[in-house]
Request: fold
Amino acid sequence: MQILETVAAAKAALRPLQGRGQTIGFVPTMGALHAGHLSLVEMSREACNLTAVSIFVNPTQFGPNEDFSKYPRTLEQDLAQLRAAGCDFVFTPTVQQLYHPQEDLAIRLPALSREWEGAMRPGHFDGVALVVAKLLNIVRPDQAFFGQKDFQQTVVVRRLARDLFLDTRIAIGPTLREPDGLAMSSRNRYLDAWQRALAPRIYATLQAVKAKAKPGMPTAPLCQWAANELTHDGAFVLDYFEIVDALNLEKQTTLNHEAEPVAIVTARLGTTRLLDNLPLF
Ligand code: AMP
Reply:
């Protein structure tokens, strides 16, 4: 496994391989890797000849009061896991490598990036889009793999690839979960034992909503029921529980088969925000 610490090293390693019948799969991450990340590496290895992973905690997608400086950084363990998973290249740039000192380039995404998670984290998806555009342009993979876990991010990245005419195919992998249903996340390590025991209620609530959901139903009572499930005993602070169309993230007022309704939720336990989602049909 080759470790590429600079943009120049990444281009020097990857360009000679491109256009020679080799296909490159790419998994962008912020490190603190878990089985969810590794499942995307596995997807890439199945679909492509070579797999590259990036580990980069991207400052432009964090708000001023968010956890950029205390985001978990576990490079040595990450590299060991990637080696064991059969990854070929790991790109580990510094912030100075990816952002020029006076850089003020920005990508301003359409309205869909300012709903839901975007409303809770202003500018977050603009930062995601900027770093994904940079990374895809450096790596120029045939396919890039993203997790359904960050559902709104998958919609934003697909738009980015479409509208910038990128050659990379965007592929989405299913959400990996702990045995009790909690979606795996680098941030789960922030949960104390009491919070960890409560956390699976998010997925249980999503599953219950899916079981209740029938075509023609209004969504408001379902979302209210779910909100109450999560908050009635003071366990969670709910940022949102909504049912949206998977294609454009528009809120659905009635469930119908023409749309692809997905329930999306973000709930907080203490200072830890937990995201999850589930397609309803
Ligand atoms: P992150 O390091 O959190 O930026 O995540 C890197 C990639 O891994 C993103 O495409 C995530 O959506 C994906 N990912 C994170 N958690 C999971 C999970 N539990 N299952 C599948 N993919 C995941």
Notes: The first strand starts at residue 2 and ends at 4. Residues 124-139 form the longest helix (16 residues).
